[in-house]
């Protein structure tokens, strides 16, 4: 009896990973096969695929090839998910020998529209909303949410994050800042990743903001009136003056700029006339409500000698007035107020200096009169001591008495004036 060399495997059957729809190959290397046969079996489906050179299964996608009866290759074309599983390479020795490899079939991610949110969702402000995105594939894909404009997502607990994980994106008490396009992105490591765009529209009544409700401008100049509106759905906007809609003309021009739900209304009136002054209304209305704002345009006097303020090379004040923006006008108003305060302070100081000069002059006059009075009193006492004087002394006493009387009257007048001071 001859000793035959038994078949043996040269290397294990490798595990293979392939994307669905691609081709895959499993190899089984056997040495000393002799008259024995090699079979391939799909264990998960309990299906004999091939025995030696013959394919048993009725799947035309399976073929078997070999290289000098050593390397046996099972080829699967256009792989499907059903092909996933364990494949055993078996040799019919006694006892049987075999080894197993695994064919992994991966599937790129896909978003299932039937169980996901619609592409456009409309809610009212302050409502709650949940965006849903369901994915499929193998492995099961992960779902991530981002905003298309790159802005952070406002979560229900008040946080702001650039990415949210999970199939459900919950937004509570939505506001106009939540409005925009959200991207649902599904990934599982198998290219390509897929995404779905869901637009969230938040409806709310128009809200008006008027930065300057009182505007003054001289006659024969140009003026610009502004109103800012936020509204969704898109609002209709127009201007009214004296209960009539303002139409574009050679002197009046209306203009609006829009950015998502924000609207900037501008009314420009050139070469102002007396009939242009009064109250103007900016009106906005959409399918939810209507609102308006008012601006009163008053006539002011053109300054005769305005302060010379040069801004960026502008040569005259009138040119500067027409070309600088709102910040320039505020700066001009602030400087004019400072100049007015400075003039008032200077006038107050001059008034105080004049009052001080008058007070000093009156004090000097009072002191002089006091001196004359004291001297008259001295003369009167000397007259009383000398009783034996002649008739000329009598005349002297008369003069002294008159002097004293005048001094007393002057002191009384001076005292009243000092009281008023």
Structure summarized in a few sentences:
By secondary structure, this protein is α+β, with helices and mostly antiparallel strands. 23% of the residues lie in helices and 41% in strands. Strands 11, 14, 17, 19, 20, 22, 25 and 26 form an 8-stranded mixed sheet that branches.
Report on this model:
A hairpin with a 6-residue loop joins strand 19 and strand 20. This protein is elongated. Mean pLDDT is 85; it is low at 309-324, 385-392 and 417-421. Helix content is 23%, strand content 41%. It is α+β, with helices and mostly antiparallel strands and 421 residues long. The longest helix has 60 residues, at 326-385. The termini are far apart. The protein is built from three helices and 28 strands. The strands form six sheets. Strands 11, 14, 17, 19, 20, 22, 25 and 26 form an eight-stranded mixed beta sheet that branches. Helix 2 packs antiparallel against helix 3 (391-420). The protein has helices at 317-323, 326-385, 391-420, and strands spanning 8-11, 16-19, 24-31, 38-42, 47-51, 54-55, 62-67, 71-76, 85-91, 97-111, 120-124, 129-132, 135-138, 142-147, 153-154, 160-161, 164-165, 168-171, 180-187, 194-209, 214-217, 223-232, 236-241, 244-245, 252-259, 262-269, 278-285, 290-299.
How many helices? The count is: 3
Derived from helix and strand composition plus strand pairing, the structural class reads: alpha+beta
Termini gap: 153 Å
Major β-sheet annotation: 8 strands, mixed
The geometry reads as elongated
How big a fraction of the residues is strand?
35-45%
Mean pLDDT, to the nearest integer, reads: 85
Quantity of strands, as a count: 28
Radius of gyration: 53 Å
List the uncertain runs: 309-324, 385-392, 417-421
Helix fraction bin = 10-25%
């Amino acid at each position: 009896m001859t000793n035959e060399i038994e078949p043996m495997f040269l290397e294990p059957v490798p595990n293979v990973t392939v994307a669905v729809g691609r081709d895959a190959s499993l190899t089984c290397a056997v040495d000393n096969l002799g008259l024995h046969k090699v079979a391939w079996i799909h264990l998960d489906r309990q299906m004999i695929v091939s025995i030696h050179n013959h394919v048993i299964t009725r799947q035309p996608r399976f073929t078997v090839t070999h290289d000098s009866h050593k390397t046996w290759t099972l080829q699967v074309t256009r792989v499907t998910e059903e092909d996933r599983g364990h494949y055993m390479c078996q040799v019919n020795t006694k006892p049987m020998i075999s080894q197993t490899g695994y064919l992994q079939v991966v599937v790129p991610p896909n978003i299932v529209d039937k169980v996901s949110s619609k592409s456009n969702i409309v809610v009212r402000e302050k409502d709650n909303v949940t965006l849903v995105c369901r994915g499929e594939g193998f492995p099961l894909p992960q779902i991530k949410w981002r905003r298309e404009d790159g802005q952070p997502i406002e979560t229900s607990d008040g946080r702001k994050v650039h990415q949210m994980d999970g199939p459900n994106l919950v937004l509570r008490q939505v506001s106009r800042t939540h409005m925009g396009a959200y991207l649902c992105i599904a990934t599982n490591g198998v290219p390509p990743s897929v995404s779905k765009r869901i637009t969230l529209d938040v409806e709310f009544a128009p809200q008006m903001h008027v930065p300057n409700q009182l505007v003054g401008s001289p006659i024969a100049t140009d003026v610009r009136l502004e109103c800012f509106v936020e509204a969704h759905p898109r609002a209709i906007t127009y201007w009214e003056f004296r209960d009539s809609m303002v139409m574009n003309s050679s002197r009046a021009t209306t203009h609006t700029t829009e950015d998502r739900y924000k609207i900037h209304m501008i009314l420009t009136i050139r070469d102002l006339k007396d009939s242009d002054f009064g109250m103007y209304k900016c009106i906005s209305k959409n399918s939810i409500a209507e609102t308006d704002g008012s601006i009163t345009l008053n006539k002011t006097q053109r300054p005769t000698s305005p302060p010379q303020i040069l801004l960026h090379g502008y040569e005259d004040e009138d040119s500067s007035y027409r070309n600088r923006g709102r910040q320039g006008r505020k700066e001009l108003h602030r400087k004019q107020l400072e100049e007015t305060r400075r003039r008032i302070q200077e006038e107050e100081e001059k008034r105080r200096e004049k009052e001080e000069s008058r007070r000093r002059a009156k004090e000097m006059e009072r002191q002089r009169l006091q001196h004359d009075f004291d001297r008259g009193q001295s003369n009167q006492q000397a007259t009383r001591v000398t009783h034996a004087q002649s008739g000329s002394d009598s005349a002297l006493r008369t003069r002294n008495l008159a002097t004293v009387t005048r001094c007393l009257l002057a002191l009384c007048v001076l005292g009243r004036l000092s009281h008023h001071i």
